[in-house]
DNA sequence: TTGAAAGCGATACCAA
DNA sequence: TTGGTATCGCTTTCAA
């Protein structure tokens, strides 16, 4: 039976109703730091229930210096790759009573600093970077005491913990799979990386080709979205010796590639086979469904939160295996 | 030139360095409520700069009762339909110095209450519901004083402001477009709505068919995702008189429909034309690209924030027009 | 086991 | 125009 007060009940109201001091209310809410008789405890619990009392998170944050908020910096959310991480992180955070606060950069120079600063100013307890910030100094925003982790990122920031997928093995699995189908001209569609970062997918693709004595193919470097995949595939197919297989650097790219191939009247995987990178839901429903190497979203998210709570440890890096998911676009089921 | 203090600077540090009282610091930061000489003001500004001072959001929230956080309740984020709104809202909120705090329900009964409660407990200033909550009482969480708005929602909650798209006109445009192409058997793939809510898309589809004297077709009601679209189209195409056109209740459904049609060896739009609802980026890169009626995401987001700041007004409802985007799947370009 | 009280950082009333 | 100070709701030390 809860009574609706006009003004939200505070801890003082609870104390008064329970006939104890506010200190005791605090003790029962936090299960410490002092013990409370179970009788007293029950009285407090009853009062809380009757008043519908909920602790004021801001007051608590002010006092303890912890908000229970985890800042996550992402370039966008309309992209299943990031959205998958956001959800995985959110679920993991829920079990710890924390919440994810998003800082979206939109990959616009101006918004980048705003996004990160906003998180820091709001007092997040830690930060997860899922974006390559243009200005390295932004990684230091808020001072050195905030636990931070780089999640599945291409750039490396000295002294910062890292959680990522085994891109190298994943890319290798993808390309080797295409090779195993007998393809000899295998193209790659990706994007140039900002700064002088290297795209491991591209590097590995190149390596595998070399290892098998296959001819090199100029990579099509456009942008990390569907449009980029589309343009890249058009480019690749317009060459004198078009590839018979394409390794797409992301699912979105893969989808764009498929569209281009269809437009050209090519059969997938008959004329051109495709394997993509990421393995989000969208890849499963394209036509044909994309064979892809999948990111271990949940595992990485859980690990990221672990890393953040182990603050103080030496910044290490965790690597998780990717998994090849065979669907229709590679030719296995064709 | 900013000095990095070990401990973050507080307003007291600023006051000391500027040789003024903390009150004045407050005045210049908030531009009021009292005026400050421009000379004093400048001294304070300098001190802030030198110390790298940033106001503590929690302390401020405690004092003012406002956090600058807007709670947004969504079922998921790995779905461009919701992600588009999240981004649109985020951008709009940024211009007001507010942030969007997400409460993801995952459409799981248990998480629903947690998600909403977590937002309220964190002290959000207002709430945007983008999900049909199973338990209507959850809409009242946090008391009656929180401004709330329902964003593009199918259910109606008495006394709550609403911002939505003109689903009816949108659906009509979609179906009429198919009719204008000469189709006589037009199917619908959607999903049963929770509770006894009605799916306007389905109702309008039915209406339009009737108006044109076209034969009714049993709708395929599955679920609002790609898988649902797939199953729905299989179902529709397995009937004795399969449709020659399909109205898909969402982009995801549309994508699933396309996959099913391809699997059956049908040509789109040659054998079956498709028009979908929502118009997210994914619809533009399916094969063939989906003709769709598009949600006015940005406009609705902006309006939602306006409504929230007009607290106290009578709860009205804003409706925005949808736009038909013609691409390849309807037959216009075939 | 319980309570009084200091203090987290910021706001704004009331005086000066 | 500027400053002293009470206060927001909560945590926790110290004393009872």
TrEMBL record, chains A, B:
Family matches, as CDD domains: HTH_LacI, PBP1_LacI_sugar_binding-like
Pfam families xrefs: LacI, Peripla_BP_3
Entry-linked PROSITE patterns: HTH_LACI_2
Family matches, as InterPro entries: HTH_LacI, LacI/GalR-like_sensor, Lambda_DNA-bd_dom_sf, Peripla_BP_I
Keyword terms, alphabetized: DNA-binding, Transcription, Transcription regulation
Residue ranges occupied by any HTH lacI-type domain in the UniProt entry: 9-64
GO molecular function, one term: transcription cis-regulatory region binding
Name of the protein in its database record: HTH-type transcriptional regulator GalS
